[in-house]
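Batch job 17 of 40 flagged for manual review because the log was empty.
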Amino acid sequence: MSSVVSILLVDDDRHLVESMADWLRECSHQVSTASCLMEAKEKLLQNSYEMVITDLRLGNEDGFDLIRHLRQQYPEVAVLVMTGYATPSTAVEAIQAGAFDLLTKPIIDEELLLAIQRAVELREIQRENQRLKEKMDRRTGLENILSHDYRMLKIFDMVDSVADARASVLITGENGTGKSMIARAIHARSSRRNGPFVEVACGALPDTLLESELFGHVAGAFTGASHDRMGKFKQADGGTLFLDEIGTASPAMQVKLLRVLQEFQFEQLGGSETHSVDTRVILASNEDLSAAVSEGRFRQDLYYRINVVNLVLPSLRERSGDIPLLVNHFLHEVAETCGRETSCFDQEAMSLLSAYQWPGNVRQLENVIERAVLLGRGAALTVNDLPPELTGQQDKWWATPQASQFGDEFASAAVQGKTLREALEGPEREIILQALRDHAWNRAATADALDINRTTLYKKMKRLGLDDPRLQFA
């Protein structure tokens, strides 16, 4: 075998145990021996072992006691059992107690080596699974939220503090600041991490559909309800329910939410049966709910119920020191995903990124980086790879002072060394891009506004690099 294993060999037959130990040492394993349960426990305290091979009969003692002790105190140690009195029920009992395998005496050398090898391989698989699980946990935990800002570091501390609390958590902040990521981090660091994480965008649904979405409905509750449907509160039972944009809920929906947040009981839409759930609720809003309470748009009792713990996320412009860190993270992530060799932004582009106000916060930054990587051509991205709203070139070409004067200097600079088609590409691209934005990227409406047919518009968009759907969010 290529793997060297540290083994504790336990048997009350001194001749057998020493003979087997010598042979295993010849196979390059590290072997210690014990003849009784007490001696085995002492050896386990003194040294670390990867495997224990034990007889089921240790004089007047029971080998099952050792197996149970190993499962409780040393769960990472693999256990092989050997016995001269094996029956099918003995094998089942040994496996249920925690043994990896059972071997019958007299032990065949090749059989023992194969059992050791299989136990080692299983241990490596289990370790790899644990490493993968920890990696997945990190992806949804705080380790994936990058910041050096002191305000965010305080939030990270609060996340750890409230992760296992039953109390509701209210996350507030502008759109794009990462409220969903913080909610997922709270879930990932809680004892509910193995339960479901269910997210509902309350602002995306009308009130009647939101009630059905949250609480479910019974067949016949409304037109088209042909069968019972489980709601999100029930789906998140034993886990976490994240209600985003809670400020958009209607007064009637706020009353129903207040009850379920207080009692964790509800009835399905159109039903009379009361359901109870064990669901942890995290809520988020991009508006000032205290102001909404003052204006009568949000119930005061519900506000006090959900505002037990309030995490206020700062905007990206308030933590501009994090921008280089986030830029490099998104740049390498997108470049790797898209198979591009882009490595960095040049100094001028990075200065522009750091000085921009980022009304869309981290989400906008991520979209800008992705756009630059997709449309950029060089290894180092420049200002020319950034969208017009960052560079200040979004104004129409004919509105500039130079263009309005139609001076020779402007005209020569615009067309110097270019063909007519190349010189017109810039203004043409800006005109089409602005029209697409004015019509919410509806191509049919844009074509009508520009007085061209849709086929011509599609061809121009493709030629000018405007057919990438990500530009809609840049």
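Reviewer: the log was empty due to a logging misconfiguration, but the result itself is present. Confidence is low (pLDDT under 50) at residues 395-411. Unflagging and moving on to job 18.
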